[in-house]
Amino acid sequence: MEAILAERSVIVAVLIASGVPRRDHPDVEQQVLMGAWNSVRRGMYRPDPTQDARKALRAWLYGIAWRKTGHYLGSAWVRRAVLHAQPLGLLREPVGPSLEAQVAARETLLAIEGLKPWQRDILLAVDDPRSLVAFAKANGMRPGTAASRLRLAREALALQLRRRR
């Protein structure tokens, strides 16, 4: 690793020549160094014994830096990134849910809070990735019972919401 780190100047030269922004030099340099080190560990660095060892290492690092730089510059993040001092000032509309939607969500949460625990559990089970049948089996009830409890919980929630409005 010391020999690779000693040749950082080759990596930096490739980054500059390729047009990598200065702010991204440390990140791309780290990718190059990690790529080189992983290649050495996998036995992919096999220099020609007739060539000067330092020249072979520099040429090999140049190739890695050139490929990593190409991947970096071709990534969607770099192609679409637009830096601006005040990015929220570019928006035409306020960010986030409207005030009415926030109030409605708060009312719904308060209504859910007023339900019995089993009603909250069955209502939350609807949003679970597993099916209602799987929820019923996990809680030791029949699927029909779970469906009936879900219907009752929805009716109780609707009643709570009507009372609050």
What does this structure look like?
- The protein is mainly α and 165 residues long.
- Helix content is 69%, strand content 0%.
- It has helices at 2-6, 8-18, 25-41, 53-74, 76-80, 99-113, 117-126, 132-138, 143-164.
- α3 packs across α4 (53-74), α6 (99-113) packs across α9 and α8 crosses α9.
- The longest helix has 22 residues, at 53-74.
- It is elongated.
- The mean pLDDT is 86.
The average pLDDT score comes to 86
Helical content (DSSP H or I, runs of 4+): 55-70%
Number of strands: 0
Instruction: State the end-to-end CA separation.
Output: 69 Å
Overall geometric form: elongated
Order of helices and strands: HHHHHHHHH
Helix count equals 9
Largest sheet: none
Percent range for β-strand residues: under 5%
Low-confidence stretches: none
Taking Cα atoms only, what radius of gyration do you get, to the nearest Å? Answer: 30 Å
| Class by SSE composition | mainly alpha
